[in-house]
Amino acid sequence: MSSPTRLLVTGSRGQLGTELTELLQRDPKLEVFGADLPEVDLTDRERALELVTGLRPDVIIHAAAFTAVDECEQEVELAYRVNCAATRFIADGARRVGAHLVYVSTDYVFDGTKADPYVEWDVPAPQSVYGRTKLGGELEVDPGWTIARTSWVCGRHGSNMVKTVLRLAEEHDVLRFVDDQRGHPTFAGDLASMLALLALNRVPGVFHTTNQGAVSWFEFAQEVLAAAGLDPTRVQPVGTAELNPPRPAPRPANSVLDNLAWRLHGFEVSRDFREPLREVVTALRSG
């Protein structure tokens, strides 16, 4: 009888890490370990190496990151420490034990000026500290490993736009969201399934892993209200340039990621985001 596959999830308490851990723990053939603050500081090289070489996982899904986009503009060195250096340390450990690494990256590695959706082979050109540091993390990934870029992640856990919209709808009659930034909302549960497929099959290369359905933030907020049985016309559009105060970090106008590599590998494309959105809103409102 073969021993179970040992799998390490970093950032295991985040909205994605929680979904990943819950999903993977359902498989009796897997032995799943989680690592997150405050117990494990992956920006401490010795601690990160000790974690990986001690556990000796077969696969690592590196979901830990500093994702507060605007805070990254103020905490530049911290962003590099978390998104670049910690990834370097985890990668170093993975090489030492022969583990396959899946690195979770972002749409922010692109500048957002392309007219069409971005494919995996487009050249990154990040405009924000967050985007530059996540691209820096990509550069630590060996060719035989996996980079999974995603966008606009939401879910049942952690802070995200679905929860923000529902909260604002309780506090205000009118909501305003930008209509000149477009992307693919991606739900953590569906993303976890995509990452698990890549990780357990050790599929190398860059993949765009999102739900389907391109919308603006304005349209997404309308969909959230509709899923909650509220009036979507309460949401009004506003341009990014009209935001007061303006956001510190520049946002890509076009964050739409085409899942081309995913399709070319013969994998089933993920659902339209409206399906998991309804599931998440139902779960949040019933909880």
Question: What's the arrangement of secondary structure elements?
Answer:
Blueprint (H helix, E strand, L loop, with lengths): L4 E6 L4 H10 L5 E6 L9 H11 L3 E4 L6 H6 L1 H22 L2 E7 L22 H10 L7 E5 L2 E2 L6 H11 L3 E4 L3 E2 L2 E2 H13 L4 E4 L6 E2 H11 L7 E4 L15 E2 L4 H5 L9 H13 L1
Parallel strand pairs: 1-2, 1-3, 3-4, 4-5, 5-10, 6-9, 7-12, 8-13
Antiparallel strand pairs: 8-11
Helix pairs in contact: 1-7, 2-4, 4-5
Provide a compact summary of the structure:
By secondary structure, this protein is α/β, with parallel strands linked by helices.
How much helix, percentage-wise, in residues?
25-40%
Query: In the CATH hierarchy, what is the superfamily?
Result: NAD(P)-binding Rossmann-like Domain
In total, the number of domains comes to 1
Label the CATH architecture: 3-Layer(aba) Sandwich
CATH top-level class: Alpha Beta
Shape, principal axes of CA atoms: globular
β-strand number:
13
Order of helices and strands: EHEHEHHEHEEHEEEHEEHEEHH
- Report the major sheet: 6 strands, parallel
User: What is the overall pLDDT average?
Assistant: 97
Cα-atom radius of gyration? 19 Å
* Gap from first CA to last CA: 41 Å
Please give the count of helices. Answer: 10
CATH topology: Rossmann fold
Strand content: 15-25%
Query: What topology, given as strand order, has the largest sheet?
Result: 2-1-3-4-5-10
Low-confidence stretches: none
Structure class: alpha/beta
